[in-house]
Write a structure and sequence with these properties.
Elements: E1 5-10, E2 15-17, H1 20-27, E3 34-38, H2 41-48, H3 82-91, E4 94-103, E5 107-117, E6 120-133, H4 135-155, E7 160-164, H5 167-182, H6 195-208, E8 212-216, H7 224-239, E9 244-246, H8 253-257
Parallel strand pairs: 4-7, 7-8
Antiparallel strand pairs: 1-2, 1-3, 4-5, 5-6, 6-9
Length: 262
């Protein structure tokens, strides 16, 4: 059977894949999934760079015996550009950006969130200060809070995407946890760091995973939501704010971006 390339514009994972099994896990029962198969990698890359409407709305794709290894693609694993970010904002009703900061690492840690509704900034959140935290604990805390917000939005019939700049946190919750759980929450080579936090977040992720998308966003590339979440995480450190609280309006974006960055 000829090798096929599957483009996923909207799914649990987006990008270009060579396996139908991987593609199906990404799009099966995902709200408004958009995907299509192509005969060549060049065609797939050209299509992925454009709006899905220029290729298909939602098309049926057939299984392939190809390898399950994703094709390397600039946009497949991380949202890196303003245009890629804008596509996400247009695809989902709610987009939640998360970030964690720690100074030094380990040291004083805090978490931040920027929540967008219909493409516009709606809420900012900050807190969970830990005087003896790490960057990873701060990132995991932020992702867990985003999952709680996502669950609430889903229950109100909204489509949701979470954008985290921590590949570690995403991997812990969405990938590695399955293997660790199958082995009684153990791993070869030692203890699992931040295990309690990972368990709680993974349990919540399992409840809503079929109705949510979680993407990695490149840090400090000028993507507004990521920058605002970063400012909130450092604001939590500066304020030593233990609770997780909503930043009170007015939400003056330029003023908030002028706060100290992480």
């Amino acid at each position: 059977m000829a090798k096929k390339y599957y483009v996923v514009w909207a799914g649990r994972e987006t990008g270009i894949f060579t396996s139908w099994d991987v593609t199906k896990r990404s799009v099966d029962k995902f709200p408004q999934a958009k995907y299509k198969s192509f005969a060549t990698e060049a065609e797939a890359k050209a299509a992925f760079a454009k709006s899905p409407n220029s290729s298909i709305g939602r098309a049926a794709v057939k299984p392939s015996a190809a390898s399950s290894k994703p094709v390397s693609h600039k946009g497949s694993s991380s949202i890196k550009t303003l245009s890629d970010n804008q596509v996400v904002l247009s695809q989902y009703e709610v987009v939640i950006y998360t970030d964690g900061g720690c100074e030094p690492n380990p040291g004083k840690a805090g978490s931040g969130i920027a929540l967008y509704h219909q493409g516009q900034l709606a809420q900012l959140w900050f807190g969970l200060f830990n005087p003896n935290g790490t960057n990873n604990t701060a990132e995991l805390n932020a992702l867990y809070q985003a999952l709680l917000m996502a669950k609430n939005a889903i229950e109100h019939g909204q489509t949701v995407c979470i954008m985290s700049d921590s590949q570690y946190s995403i991997n812990c919750i969405c990938e590695w946890a399955y293997g660790w759980k199958a082995k009684g929450w153990t791993r070869k080579g030692g203890d699992i760091a931040n295990l309690d936090m990972i368990k709680h977040a993974h349990e919540l992720y399992e409840i809503i995973k079929d109705k949510i998308s979680i993407k990695h966003v490149a840090a400090h590339t000028g993507i507004e939501g990521n920058e605002l979440a970063d400012r909130m995480s450092i604001y939590a450190v500066d304020q030593a704010h233990i609770a997780f609280s909503q930043y009170q309006p007015p939400l003056d974006i330029s003023k908030i971006l002028a706060l100290r960055a992480g």
